[in-house]
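Exam review. A common question shows you a sequence with its structure tokens and asks you to describe the fold in words. Practice with the pair below. Do the first one on your own.
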Amino acid sequence: MFGKDKGVYKLVLPTLESPRELERLSLAELNNLASEIREELCRLYDHRSVHFASNLGVVELCIALHTTFDFSWDRLIWDTGHQIYPHKLLTGRFNRFATMRTKGGLMGFPNPEESEYDLMMTGHAGCSVGTALGLCCGDDLIAGSNKRHSVAVIGDGALSSGVVYEAMNHAGGLKKNLTVVLNDNKMSICPRVGGLSDHLDRLRMHPVYSRIKQKLHSLVDRTPLIGSSVDSFFGRFKNAIKAGLLGGMLFEELGFRYIGPIDGHNIARLQRFLRMARSFEEPVLLHIFTEKGRGFRPAEENPTAYHAPKPGRIFDTPFPVLPDINSIPQSSSQSSSSVSPPKPQLAAFTEHARNAIELLMRQNDRVCVITAAMCQGNMLEPIRDQFPERFFDVGICESHAIVFAAGLAKAGMLPVVDIYSTFLQRSYDQLFQEISLQNLPVILAIDRAGLAGPDGPTHHGVFDLAYLRPFPNFVVMAPADALDVEPMFRLAERLERPVAIRYPKAAATVIERNPEPMQLGKAEIIRNGIDGMIVVCGTFLETAVEAAKTLGKNLDGLGRVDVGVINARFVKPLDTDLILQPLREGKFLVTFEEGMLIAGFGSAVLEAANNARLDTRRLRRLGISDHYVEHGERSELLDDLGLNEKQIVKTCREIMFG
């Protein structure tokens, strides 16, 4: 598929157990290996949603890194580790590669439990430089003269994170032997934004610098060993043209020796410049250009759509099942008689939230939207296109997003910050100082609240309730179904105070009812019960209703349990009058949430019951206990955690019958 003659070239990946084995391969064989890796990435995409375009773009870089350094000893940190797939193939995980992002299989991010070559579980952008610097300093203190090299690979999108410059400033002062590889593909998930991206484009595009740089690269390529005289000439000449043409370099002002830009798909050139970077006793930033989606034309043409696309058939025939894999989905070539008709697709909570925000923007010129490089994930493209003057993508800068929103709110705007729960954690201090303390009207649309499925523990949004509840002035809401979403945004618009609305990465069902009007701090009774009540925080309302119906049946001869259901709607302020009424009447109460039990919704109910001096012996909380949840399909994880109808039924019957 990628121009490789399989008749004369023996496949390497199936036999590769360690990257040290790459040393025996010629340059031609390494280039063929790059094609192999791209084919495996396409085979994987053939069957499931995976991070795709970013991995296609770093294949040659990954090969060059592993043939220049020995990362069983040296240190390698991948920033925003969704671009880790080629690295996993080169480090002995080919035979498990088809399990990527499946429950019990390989994680879609680095995972130290999988391999010694995965040092950190990196899932958020911007932390690679600081982590690599810490490793560098620690190794110098411990290893002494037995030198290790530290390498951080960071994308141009992640480079906009403020924490990167804190780390670079520190590294420049310490003068450690640290190599930062800037993988510049002109993208984060969506196209990068801001003045820094313009600066990188000027480096890429300046015609005079590009011509001189190419001549210098040719000189270096012909030089077997970078000696001191060549190095000195190279450094002085580049500094001169950079100072003359570009007005000085940002990275060199921070104390880094800047090398580049160079072609990130040329393995031989990458190896040579990586060796050069390794030879310097000071921080080095190696600037490379890559193409996101390289080798697969649809991803090259639309890398945003192919960041983590739904599975799509690439090959005419399904790829062979690997020897130790039993969980690969069946090929679409199976007979139609064995396939159930597809169920109607429900719109996701994300889409309902987007529609509600769009409606507010149409009717209220004060409303504006801020996202942190997640325009596509938050389905905000229609808002961006219709209201460009009121749409702000700040890049991967979540802390800045909140500070920026505070400024907009102080000026009289009504900003909606649309952000994933897991990334909102990065702005904790700003939520406190700039939003809560100032009591500013900022609406947080918290997407991916709860379990994020195959993205795993770095992306599960299970902590937001616990860290938002303590903040004074905040209102915290959780829609139970599609009918709750727009009314919650309408209420948030009217409140003129900090508001958080959290919703999961899931389809939004509709519970048939006549919804109660959305009023601040008021829950909603879905059905009454004589024996007890289930109070639901968020999207388990349908599950709770079905459990109540099941409990109404005499399943084990002990008798029926007549259970009611409450849609809490609000985590803060809590409707204590309604929610605590079952305990006041001697009935049982079960809370149900997709979040951590510690400091979560159930804890809020327990605290309220204690404050009211009620007997809490018949109160039970269902949620996520004190541990990190691994990756897997959301339905699988919910079952493992007991967040399902079966567990509700079991809990209620245990309270009733012991």
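Now try the second one, then compare your answer with the model answer below.
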Amino acid sequence: MRLLTLFLILLHCTCGRAQEADTIPVYDAPLATVSGYGQLNTRYSAAPVVGLGAAELKRYDESSLLSALNRVPGVRFEERATASYRIAIRGASLRAPFGVRNTQVYWNGIPYGDPGGDVPLNFLNAVNIDRVEVIKGPSGGFYGPGTAGTLLLNTDAKHHPHERVESEASLTAGSFGFVRGGLVLKKENDSGGHKQFRAGYQRTDGYRDHSAMDRLTLQYSTTIKGKKNRNETKLHALYTKLDYELPGGLNPEQYAENPRQARPGSADKNASIHYHNLLLGLANSQYFGKWKMETAFYTTGFYFDHPFNFDYKREANLGGGGRFSARRLLRDDLDLAFGVESKLQYRTGQNFTNPDGTRPGDLNFSDEIFSQEGLLFGQLRYTPGPWDFNLGLSSSQLDYAIDRTFDADGNTGETEFSANRPLSLRLAAGRTFDFGYVYASRVDGFSPPTLDEFRTNEGSLNVDLNPEVGTNYELGFRTKLGGKLNAEFNVFHFALDEAITSFTDERGTQLFQNSGKTQQNGIEIAATYLALNGIDDPFRLELYASYTYYNFTYQDFQQRGTDFSGNNIPGAAPHTVNLEANLTLKNGLYLSLFHNFTDAIPLNDANEVFADSFHLLRTKLGYRNQQGLDIFLTGSNLLNERMSFGNDLNPRFGNRYFQPAPGRNWQVGVRKRW
């Protein structure tokens, strides 16, 4: 409330000096439809923001966002099993043994994910995403609690304002029974709005035994524009049916013997996940004089069925929430923005024994769970001349209330948990020079335990688990030289307290603990060079390179009588390199080559077990004509490296560390636009 009072006082003091006008004020970008702290031109944003458009996303294997996001320095998109995603932005994946956590995600401006931070990113197909923005590191609460980063995912009817609306159909088939189909139908209204229907289907038998996946997504979106573009309303509806098998982790002996095998017992118990999910979202932007008000509401529900090696889990979920923001140019060089965000969720969860994997056995425990998350945020941006100063404040809170209605051991009753951060601060300053843009920032991070961390699969309620808190210090530089070279350099120091880490018990159940203080230092470099532009030159040649250096260590962590202080944090690669070359001929032929080097990754706190370093070589060869036809062939892991896109960390029993990725594989596809 003190934050809200502060902003209202500031608003009252400034409104009298600002004159109302009939003309629409100029804003960098909307707030509720989130775009890099509300700034469209991220080249001059005092924050580590990276954008990927439709061209970049379609340049790679479109089975997931893995290939495209992993080109961004500081981002590691992982896929332990087919469609089992996790993301580490400027951090290890230690906190996310499965799923996406500690990362705020927005889809078309709609808060996407559960209160507390569990994000079902596998509900989305590539056909549902045209543009991605990555904000690396904590946001000071501007986009909700989190210490890792924020993903802004958008479905665009037009990739650029002056493009015509295009429909599209695609079909791809490949190794290990891979099939993917996509359909995008678009229609523009006379008012400038549009309607679109998107369907995506993807299946695979999987590289490993018991690793098949089947996913269907259906999306309907419509945009209605008001007179003189003073208001705009968007409706989004998304349905997902997702089924995928879980092969499980392998120990070193099994991994060496046959990386394609499943963990013993996974197939017998039908270890797998089955989802039905529906998401409805409504976003509106409205001008009132010099004010711009934006709202984004959503409601969601899913049914979850999950047989595992030792138990059987079923859940039903209803959720909803929204985001409201207001923005005003107080002067030409002074911009005020503030707002609120809220998420609510009701979930019923039952845990059973798993006799044979076909249906649940005896009930172990049953819970009714209420979760709610609230955020109050605000920002002042002052831009005198070449300077850019930013002050951000936020306050957030998370509450869980769990009513254990049944327990086989007779332990029933209610449990409540609350975590709050009264004040998070973001300070950032940047300056434009002839040679580029330089900025520095200090940003707070706050990340409470997710529901799956607080309420674990074996039935315990981790009431002693504390939220992560930390502060990130950063220096950054961007430059664009001669219309050919774009480069960016970042160096950061992130000090985290009460870091949440995971480990597994003898059954393989993921459990969580606070691991004290960590220190995360990093360097990120990326550059794109247009060697030949294809207009004055006989062909177009674009080169890209990125490098990430991480030094992530425990500063104060003792567990079960062992001191891990000074050890590297599991799950983070010290060195990562990406190299790309994209060649396009005037006759429509194109060729892309991609090389990724990932350094050896520690897999446990003692740094005794490592995933070997690897070189991942990929290619894409295709033909594209002016009539919208695109035929292509892609190849991945051409060196047939034994590697993983995400291993298991800290298994205390069984040494089941390894989740092998596919060997050499191919895909052939066709796309048609009209």
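Model answer, second protein: The domain at 2-673 is CATH 2.40.170.20 (Maltoporin; Chain A). Residues 160 and 642 are 41 Å apart (CA to CA). Full marks require stating both points clearly.
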